[in-house]
Amino acid sequence: MPDDCIVDYDNLLKKSYSEMGGIYNFDNSLHHDDLIKIANNFTSYFIDIQVSSPFIVVLKTIAYHLQSCFIVMAKNEIYDFFITSYKFLATHLDKTKSNQDGPKSNSMIVDNVIFEICNDMLNNYDKYDDTIKIQIPNLLVDIVTILFLKVDPYGKKVSIFQIKPYYVSKKECLLNKEYFYPSKISIAEGTEPLVENIKTKCSNNPKEENVKPGKAIEVNSTPDTVLYNKDFMRSDMLFKINQITKRDSDSIERSLSSLPEKEIRKLYDICNNYNKIVKYNNFDNLKDFKSELENELKRPLTEKQIRHSQISIKKVHFYMENILDGKFEPHLTHGINHVKHNFEYGYRLAGLLRNAKSGIGKK
After folding, report:
1. With the C-alpha atoms ordered 341, 343, 346, 352, is the resulting torsion angle positive or negative?
2. Which helix (H) or strand (E) segment is 91 a member of?
3. 224: burial class by Cβ within 10 Å (0-12, 13-18, 19+)?
4. What is the CA radius of gyration of the chain?
């Protein structure tokens, strides 16, 4: 990986500004120092990226930074991003020995793939909501990576004949909320946290609290140090709350700002298990639901527990709406709201919420 060798990302990124200047006004919208920090520590931040090419790292760094700053490109800009990203790699990677059998040897097929993807973007891009649009640059970088390296950035081999199906499949996962870029981020020991670098200088975002660096933490686990950083709340937690409740981001942030820490933690756990919730909701048959849940948990549940979990999962929208609106008023005598308590018991049975007695950092 590029972290392990000497790569002058300062000059490489500056050079990319002129080569890719038609995509977006990078000098005004992106912060060069932040990009350098990301590129120089790329493998520490993005632990599932396997490619070693510094030029792919440059494109991924820009794509992730655009997404983290919630910069929504217009249709002509995303079109330019795809074409100029391709030209950027063609300029650099075509010069390397390893790419002598690259796209040019299959130019007609490559041209057809590029044409079909561009046509798809031009016809459908405006239909996507902003939470999808900010992820499209990352998807397009994956595609141009395959065009030149015959492997996606995550190490999966993809032949030139599989590129279009790969694109369609990945895009459908984004649209169906089954996948979200980036899939894995870590904060490595001795490395400045990515979340502190990104967006603190973006003028359209509020200030975040500092996140102290520590041992590697995956965003998709339960990183309490990252939980309250608004960067990740925008790019992941807010995104998933939006998908469940259909509320806009400003409304969600206002609700979250009035909630106590323990309630935010519960919402985070629900969001962190969003893909499981989508999967479980597809099982209307109790027998199939039981089989899937027990297979996931690696332990048996009683029929009563299974039914309780299924009801809770089916009504996750109701639960989340009431949490955000503060409608679960505790009983004056018992100090708890029994409806809320029953929902949360169902989520804990299904492994979607941490144990209420768990301390910070514990699952």
Report:
1. negative
2. helix 75-93
3. middle
4. 22
Looking at residue 27, what is its pLDDT? 44
Q: Give the residue among 64, 7, 2 at the shortest CA–CA distance from 34.
A: 64
What residue type is assigned to position 249 of the chain?
S
Determine the Cα–Cα distance for residues 112 and 267; give it in Å rounded to an integer. Answer: 44
Contact 206, 233 (CB under 8 A): no
Of 146, 184, 180, nearest in space to 166 by CA: 146
Prior bond to 182 cis, omega within 30?
yes
Query: Per-residue pLDDT tens for 111-143?
Result: 888 999 999 998 999 999 888 999 999 999 999
Neighbouring-strand partners of residue 151: 157
| Inter-CA distances, 320 with 1, 121, 266, 325, Å | 41, 34, 10, 9
Q: How far apart are CA 217 and CA 188, in angstroms?
A: 7
pTM for this predicted structure: 0.54
Taking each helix axis as running N to C, give the angle between helix 261-272 and helix 238-245, from 0 to 180 degrees, rounded to the nearest 10.
80
Beta carbons of 299 and 349 less than 8 angstroms apart: no
Residue-wise burial string across 103-121, b where 16 or more C-beta atoms lie within 10 A, e elsewhere: beebeeebeebbeebeeeb
Q: Which of 188, 191, 170, 187 is nearest to 179 (CA)?
A: 170
Task: Give the Cα separation of 187 and 209 in Å (integer).
Answer: 16
Place of tokens 């332990």: 299
CB-count burial class (<10 Å; 0-12, 13-18, 19+) for 98: exposed
How many whole angstroms from its chain centre is CA 328?
30
Query: Token digits for 222?
Result: 């339960």
Tokens 């760094």, located at residue: 61
Per-residue pLDDT reduced to its tens digit, 290-318: 999 999 999 999 999 999 999 999 999 99
Tokens of 110: 């490559």
CA distance to 323, 336, 352, 357, per residue, from 333 (Å): 20, 8, 28, 22
Q: How far is CA 320 from the centre of its chain?
A: 21
**Rama region for 88: left / alpha / beta (φ>0; ψ in -120 to 50; rest):** alpha
Q: Which residues 6+ apart lie within 8 Å of 359 measured at CB? A: none
